[in-house]
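Q: Protein A?
A:
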Amino acid sequence: MVNSIVSSAVFLDRDGTIARDVHYCSRPEDLELLPTVGEGIRLLNENRFKVVIITNQSGIARGYFTEQMLGKIHQKMRGDLAQYGAHIDAIYYCPHHPDEGCECRKPKPQLAYQAINDLQIDCQQSYVIGDRLMDVELARAIGCKSVMILNDLGKSELEDCDIFPDYIAPDLELAARWIIQQRRCLT
């Protein structure tokens, strides 16, 4: 019999949302969690959201690092989050160059659909958090609400756009608190 349990999830971007956006994070020691990330993810975990990272990692195609090294970077990230009592349920990444025209590069929804199928996620009960408009576009493509972490890059993208996130937050913890409040309002 097929498992029919359906989960709510929060899809997270990595660079600029969870970790400092450094030029092609290519070594574990280059990964640094942003303030409040551990607390925010722990809150999502405690409130039974699946936490899924969907990230574009064209540094692989560009030769800055290998998929094996990316695994080590993500292992460090998981260890850093564990210090806050937080965990990631799954990580999906696009290793392709933007010019390749692949179907898995955000904002295209292929990786999100894979996670939805793998983890039996209900998109109507789920959210996407990121720091770019492509994350808002991904949320729309899969039928989730969107939260934008407002950093300098996000501010400049919002100036001349015709799509807007459902919520704007200064950091991941406040984004998580808003999501949890939204769930409470629906029940």
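Q: Protein B?
A:
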Amino acid sequence: FDKHIGQATLYGMQYHFHSPSEHSIDGKLMDLEMHIVHKVESKYKVGVHSQFSNGVLGFLFKCMPEQYFLEINSRHPEIDIYYHDRFLSEMVDLESQRLGQDRRPLDLKKFVELLDFNRRWTYQGSLTTIPCSEGILWNVIEHVIPITQQTLDKFNSFRKIEEDQYTNRIEKTL
């Protein structure tokens, strides 16, 4: 995508979620999407060495019935089908305890290793949240990650609490 960059290091800056997803597959939105915003290493200056200032890595999640998890587990006991669901659920638990504080760094090594990272959609775009900056290299992983309804409910409850806290802070300052 950028002839000036053969290989570059990206640094994770922040992550956030959208429910439902912002990206769709065959016109269908997924239940949840996680975006991890990365900064392109500083030796590549936008407009001088690169057209990209940032990269975003997107993961799509879909709620699946418990039967789905049980069937996969019975056919492939060597696969931890609950790993990503557990990861997301535990992340929400930790974030709930730290409400109003900086987010903790995520260790995504195993999270990504269990997905086919090489199968992804890549395109040039912009940030989807303010300031909606252009010059973003998007990579959305094709593998849709199954999660339980319980985890999605937990996540959406946390988001509501987080949004209410943020809204109340703004109202108090006005």
